[in-house]
Design brief:
By secondary structure, this protein is α+β, with helices and mostly antiparallel strands. The longest helix is centred in the middle third of the chain and has 10 residues. The protein is globular.
Length: about 110
């Protein structure tokens, strides 16, 4: 079944500076749980360049970010993410919480 097949897939957990990346290659799935909204807004372009360089057709990007600025973060919307990643399309958005604040989970897929 599906669960059995998933256990045979290689998973790489990588720690990197997304604005000055030392990683090579591309990834099928990239997960950002609360990074982008913590970056200074002027570093978002560097973040987006790294994500684009580590992506290939079909890469899924999952971003969890605050939607309100109450926790000293820079809130994001699905529209802002779509504009930041023009080679991706928004697949879904799900309201959630992160560190007690209102947040959104946005699933994007590279075209």
């Amino acid at each position: 079944g599906r669960a059995r097949a998933a256990t045979t897939l290689p998973i790489l957990f990588a720690l990197d500076d997304v604005t000055v990346s030392n990683l090579d290659g591309t990834f099928d799935v990239i997960v950002d749980r609360g990074v982008l909204h913590c970056l200074p807004i002027e570093r978002r372009d560097a973040y987006a360049r790294t994500i684009a360089a580590r992506s290939t057709t079909g890469t899924t990007l999952l971003v969890v970010a605050h939607t309100g600025g109450e926790l000293a973060t820079h809130p994001l919307t699905a529209g802002e993410l779509a504009a930041l990643f023009p080679s991706f399309r928004v697949v879904s958005t799900t309201p959630t919480t992160l560190s007690g604040g209102a947040a959104i989970l946005v699933e994007l897929r590279a075209a």
